[in-house]
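stage 2 :: seqdesign
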């Protein structure tokens, strides 16, 4: 039982938390690709920028002496999402919309997004420096340790308060996104435009409005993903830049242009990375009693070292591109 609890702490909880962040980031990327047909590499900076906006709001709450029963980062999250959504609209209007009017190809928009990435990251470093920040400088991060000794385990089940809220908020957001895409007129218009933009325009759909709504949804979800990542680890200027490849891998694995595929891909990549770096000796060590001396398990038995965790996303991405280029949910060909 102790080994199972250790596995749950290190793989299931860790993989679920990581998968939630990847999923929310991948949904924004796949929505933008489905509507505008280009890979938005600056999405990572929307995540980081949104997290810094939430941090500023949380710091303002602390300066004003406002205390909340839950982590302040989650309290200010809706405000930060609105601000980030407005910023994402501004980025589109300032950089991408003029290029689209000139008939720029997707590769041109891709290169422009890389430039936006460097610009936004430079601005963040200019105003905040290169140091790290924490949402819990003025409040404590509660850690829940669930005693399972009655079940024969010597280890407690460990999960932090931000991780609990992260899982709940992600579930609620995914549910809200599902109803938005399937029940609302705008959501149906987005799906129609993702399937065939020309036909959607001929059918009378306001494509300009759909593009604006896409940026609003993508920006809000990026802020949510970035803030939750910062609440789980630490906030720094390259917070999401280092995980943009796994997020893109999640979007491609799920199927580019497919929101549900992005969610599935994010969870798949998250659990795969956690499984790959897990020390399997901790679970399999009871086998040492029956294995011969020359076949004893080493002290550390992981598929890849922790520092190479990002290679897992690359491997899964390459396999999917070779076996099923359209992804699990048959999105646009990668």
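stage 2 :: out
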């Amino acid at each position: 039982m102790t080994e199972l609890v250790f596995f749950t702490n290190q793989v299931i909880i860790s993989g679920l938390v990581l998968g939630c962040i990847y999923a929310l980031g991948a949904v924004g990327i796949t929505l933008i690709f489905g509507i505008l047909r280009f890979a938005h590499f600056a999405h990572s900076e929307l995540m980081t920028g949104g997290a810094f906006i939430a941090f500023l709001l949380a710091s303002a709450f602390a300066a004003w002496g406002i205390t909340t029963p839950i982590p302040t980062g989650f309290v200010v999250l809706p405000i930060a999402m609105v601000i980030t959504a407005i910023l994402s609209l501004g980025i589109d209007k300032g950089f991408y919309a003029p290029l689209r009017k000139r008939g720029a190809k997707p590769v041109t928009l891709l290169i422009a997004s890389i430039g936006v990435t460097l610009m936004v990251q430079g601005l963040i470093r200019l105003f905040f420096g290169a140091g790290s920040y924490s949402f819990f400088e003025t409040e404590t991060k509660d850690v829940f340790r669930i005693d399972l000794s009655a079940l024969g385990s010597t280890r407690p089940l460990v999960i932090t308060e931000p991780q609990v809220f992260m899982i709940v908020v992600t579930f609620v957001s995914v549910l809200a996104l599902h109803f938005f895409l399937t029940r609302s007129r705008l959501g149906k218009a987005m799906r129609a435009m993702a399937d065939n933009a020309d036909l959607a325009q001929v059918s009378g759909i306001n494509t300009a409005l759909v593009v604006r709504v896409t940026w609003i949804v993508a920006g809000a979800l990026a802020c949510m993903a970035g803030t939750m990542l910062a609440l789980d680890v630490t906030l720094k200027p390259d917070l999401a830049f280092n995980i943009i490849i796994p997020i893109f891998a999640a979007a491609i694995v799920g199927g580019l242009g497919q929101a549900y595929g992005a969610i599935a891909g994010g969870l798949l990549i998250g659990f795969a990375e956690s499984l790959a770096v897990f020390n399997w000796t901790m679970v399999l060590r009871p086998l040492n009693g029956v294995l011969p001396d020359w076949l004893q398990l080493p002290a550390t038995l992981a598929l890849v070292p922790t520092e190479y965790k990002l290679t897992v996303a690359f491997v899964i991405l390459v396999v999917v591109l070779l076996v099923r280029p359209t992804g699990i949910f048959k999105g646009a060909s990668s």
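stage 3 :: structure notes
- The longest helix spans residues 2-36.
- Residues 2-243 form one domain.
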